[in-house]
Amino acid sequence: MSGKIGKALLAAGAVGGAANGGAAAVLAGKLVHPRRFTLEEEKAWLIEHGLWGDYDQIPRTNYTIAGKDGYVLHCEYAPTNPGSRRFVILTHGYTSNRYGSVKYLGVYRALGFNCVLYDCRGHGENLPAPCSIGNLESEDLLHVIEDTYLRYGEDIELGLHGESMGSAASLSVLKFRPRVRFVVADCGFASLYDLIGRLYREKHFGFMLDPVNVMMGKRYHFTLKQTCPRDALQGNEVPVCLIHGEEDTFILPQNSDELAQATSGYREVHKVKGAEHARSRYVLGEEAYTKIVETFLENLQ
Questions:
Q1: Which H or E run includes 147?
Q2: Residue 106 contacts residue 53 (beta carbons within 8 Å)
């Protein structure tokens, strides 16, 4: 469903001709309250593209936890390696839900990990809520990390994997210095403000960027500028593997280069030929994608 993300972000382009509070309010509303896809829709897309695998045969456990300010998050545990002490938390992209992370399940099963999937705020089975596209979501993820240790043991080895908005959340949470061993960030952006600015300029209403940013602060109490994984990585020592499609015209691959430059820890950048936004796993296939993550983890030894 990655091809629909840009449409969701820019759905209000038609109203961008008038630089006034009303237009800024509509644009801001479209960003924080996009049309989200249901679990059934995401599952159907993955089945159609051969990415669902045998997920229906895995004996999953569903549960809820309290995220930031007590917001309830729906989670799902997939014991892909029962008995293993290796765990990874998978965070999906904008307008998707926890099923959007299923495409990565086989990767981590092959590497000996159990998987925790969850719905980001306002997505999936969660109650409606404004989406900050990575900022508030990173604080929710911090709660998921803490709950995973409480639920499965303090001795587990825990990593993070995020796609697009999920990449932003997985990198931004590092500013809180959580106890995680690694982050795999697929097609992430360096700065939401910069990303939306470029997308608006391409649609010839770049003049709306700052009014929208101000309106988001007034109405939703967060701004585009606050979602900035590049800044969150300052001083970070957690190893990061950045994967990006070379044909990504939505979040340009240069974003992963910026993120690599921002972190202080070990980092790798992998560009995938022929892959558009959030399509690296699809283009490479499971075996080749797994090899990237496997080699990255081996390099941490």
A1: helix 135-152
A2: yes
Query: Which residue has 């549960």 as its token pair?
Result: 63
Largest separation between any pair of C-alpha atoms in the chain: 59
Neighbours of 197 (CB within 10 A): 18
112 and 86 in contact (C-beta within 8 Å)? yes
If asked whether residues 70 and 213 sit together in one domain, one would say: no
What CATH code is carried by the domain that includes residue 128?
A: 3.40.50.1820
Burial of 216 (0-12, 13-18, 19+ CB in 10 A): buried
Count of the separate structural domains present in the chain: 2
Report the chain (301 residues): mean pLDDT per 10 consecutive residues: 55 47 91 96 97 97 98 98 98 98 98 98 97 98 98 98 98 98 98 97 94 96 97 98 98 98 98 98 98 98 85
What single-letter amino acid sits at 55? Y
